[in-house]
Amino acid sequence: MKGPKIYYGWFVVAACFAATFTLGEAVWSFGVFFKPLETEYGWSRALVSSGYTAFLFGFAISAIASGRFADRYSPRPILFVSALLSGFGVAMCSQIEGINDLRFFLFIGGLGGGATISVPTSVVQRWFYGRPKAGLALGIVMAGVGAGALFFAPLVNYLILSYGWRMAYLIVGIIFFFTISFSAFVIRSVPADRRPGSERGNITEGGERPRGLTARQIVRHPAFIGISLIHVSVASAFHTISVHLVPYAIDNGITPTVAAVALGLLGGFSVPARILSGFFADRLGWKRILTASLFGMSLFIGWLFFLKEAWILCCFVLFYGFSHGCRISSHLGILGEFFGMKSLGEIIGITMALAQVLGAFAPYFAGFIFDVTGSYVAAFIVIMIILFMSGIIALVIKNPLAAE
What we know:
mainly alpha, 17 helices
């Protein structure tokens, strides 16, 4: 007697998790490379941060283009191109001789990296549109970013200590290529012809085509503008923390190894939050999760002002990481909840691109503030304020589809 057939959407979830797993290194582990690059070349912290800024510009371009393509074509070739670009760009960082080399190859890596967020998150929401556990599926996919941070930050630190930062870049680039290629092999579009109990493209189980707005309608809507402002704010905060947390901790007497592990745990503690936020969003809605997470992030930044010992750092990564995990899943979930599936990949790409382009300068300015004042205090205060204001925006925005 045959058991129940496993819905293929769960295999898509696993493949999407693998894609976002690589993003955990791309956006979390640059801080581990920070001190070795600063030491070897004598660059200022603003100059080192500019390499990450270049990555974010490439990421922004890729997020829009790949999201738009994912709305129209199969995600498989898009992810294969992502594997080639990101693997090549990161691996070639092992050959840099100056700051412009670092910027160029990280830009190439960013051109590949954008697809690892806009494609998986839009594809998985389409596979589970109108089905139970849709929020949980998205939460699992977004948990890949946190799991990647937990895996890569200590791995990169080990590789740097054992073989040098050049070999670390080369090995990570190879891992990127094979991991994203695996994801591309497994993932596929929602079939056009679906049996009862599943979907027909974007048609729900009951045969009703889902409500949704076009991209042109969405980008002019006040709710989309508010969500985009929120994402720019949290991206600025995230990039500043991910780039400068390790050097800041080392400056305050924390060992490089403990600082690198803490950076990984910051992403690691976000993993259960990403999954749990999806579970609770199925019951409470994404808006409530987003609002609570933003106020939590603003509050827990305050721990950094008292960072003198490792246990304080651990408290920060625990509470901030959990709030951050809830925030990232809820940001992507609220786009589908508020605007439907018609242009989901494209609007995910647009919000990601806006956040990366405008937030790309945040780590650079944080480094500049440190170079001028010798402290990150002013930068952290600004982060607290913009996160709190983002929480207020999340509290007041309204769902356009709720009024239909």
